[in-house]
């Protein structure tokens, strides 16, 4: 629970940063789009400073609230922006079809883009499953907050969860199909970065592109601020349960501000640091999904069923068999992230190009490289002149043998 909530806090801050600043080389975010091109690379609109201001002056005050009741207006704006987002993607797809710019939907994944060998391609395909899994397991973060849900009933919560999952699935399907129809292989990891005036103008015209880009990005930024504040409640509660379980047990008095605020600000500071130095939302979500969501969504429920479903009946045996398969599936997805990490270290990465000067994200990160691949290459460079980045060279540099 703690890992999942922290991961999504980082993802929300990362995406807000993309919305505010945009991507290299254009930097056409909500802030930078109003600046001359030569000023968009200045330090005072750098990712570190902008995210620090966002965390300190927006997220910190809102996260200091004791209850979630004050966030209703932000959440309503968020829901409206999601509806507008889906509508815009459908509009773009229709415009692409009518103008003859539409891309044909692929029948399967682009395997060569996933890696140069079969093992890399298999792990790349399997890595998508935890990404999807995270969207279907976010509702589990509600459990630490049941005391705040008034009035609370199991039936009402089940209805809310079912409605949320249905809407998320529908939104995901609409955005995926429409986005690829409009942009094809040019769809970015954060699709919101595709909604720039320059990329929208060929489809809907310059004036409409400017208005739509500004409206969607602004609405989504407000929505993500609300989401970042909301996810702080279960994140903070999980941290307090880990550190001081008696202080947050059922029936205990409200946590003192001397404990509440430092815990809040510590978690925000940690999320900020990770968001600055791990700007790829793919890396964060894939790790959280592979490690956290597979354990919570697959392995723990299957293990509980295997332990307690021990009746000598055919139904019980079938359920235990199904639970064993689910456990093995979760274990495979869990191990896949580490296999992928090993392969990314030992095998060449496809399409790994250095980012342009002043590219957004962490300092020195190369576009197209995950964090662990960048760390490995940095270690190879540190190994000294003549190092080819091989496993032997880097282990020698680390002091693990000659």
UniProtKB/TrEMBL annotation:
Q: Which UniProt keywords apply?
A: Amino-acid transport, Membrane, Transmembrane, Transmembrane helix, Transport
Task: Fetch the Pfam families from UniProt.
Answer: Aa_trans
Name of the protein: Amino acid transporter transmembrane domain-containing protein
Entry similarity comment: Belongs to the amino acid/polyamine transporter 2 family.
Q: What residue stretch is flagged as signal peptide? A: none
Primary localization: membrane
| Example of a GO MF term | L-amino acid transmembrane transporter activity
Please, which domain of life does this record's source organism belong to? Eukaryota
| Start and end residues of each Amino acid transporter transmembrane domain | 3-340
Q: Which residues cross the membrane?
A: 44-65, 77-98, 160-183, 203-235, 255-278, 284-309, 321-345
Q: Name where it's found.
A: Membrane
According to its record, how does it sit in the membrane? Multi-pass membrane protein
Under InterPro entries, the record lists: AA_transpt_TM
